[in-house]
Amino acid sequence: MSFCRIRHVVNRSGRKRCNGVVAPLRVVYMKDHSMACKYDRTEKERKIRGRRTEAMTLKEVQEILGADVLCGEQSLDREVTTAFACDLISEMLAFAGSQTLLITSLTNPHVIHTAEVMDAIGVVFVGGKKPSEDIIVNVNRANIPLLSTPYLLYKCSGLLYCNGIEGCKRGFTE
Length: 174
What we know:
Blueprint (H helix, E strand, L loop, with lengths): L2 E3 L3 E2 L4 E4 L2 E9 L5 E5 L3 H5 L8 E2 H8 L2 E4 L7 E2 L1 E4 L3 H7 L5 E4 L4 H10 L3 E4 L7 H10 L3 E3 L4 H10 L3 E2 L7
Parallel strand pairs: 9-10, 9-13, 10-11, 11-12
Antiparallel strand pairs: 1-5, 2-3, 3-4, 4-5, 6-8, 7-12
């Protein structure tokens, strides 16, 4: 379990309130006698904490993210080892390597063209966003799986990282 220094108000019921968000926590004392808060994870969050070492398929990514498959269902058996989350096309081209899963909230045709140029494994649209039907028809010809998840970019990236997907570093996959 992770610890964070107390910077927020803890009310009498033992719940943390920060910007309108309430999260259960327990106050504990650290070895240096400072106070810290321990976030009580939900059962679902506890299950995903163990990191995997082997590659996973796009089908497993779909299950982890609770995503809808927009197109490319026949390609969900592709292996995913790296992912790149970004909303800037220039950074996708500069930092993401080939055979990478793109995670973005952009739904314009430029993202699809970038995925084709990069030879991406697939594209995940976050926040429940879905591209228009004409874009999906064009992607079917390119054979790139498109997924749409209700999670936002940060949560989506965290879930995949906890399940063994690594990020890209300066255009190289490791």
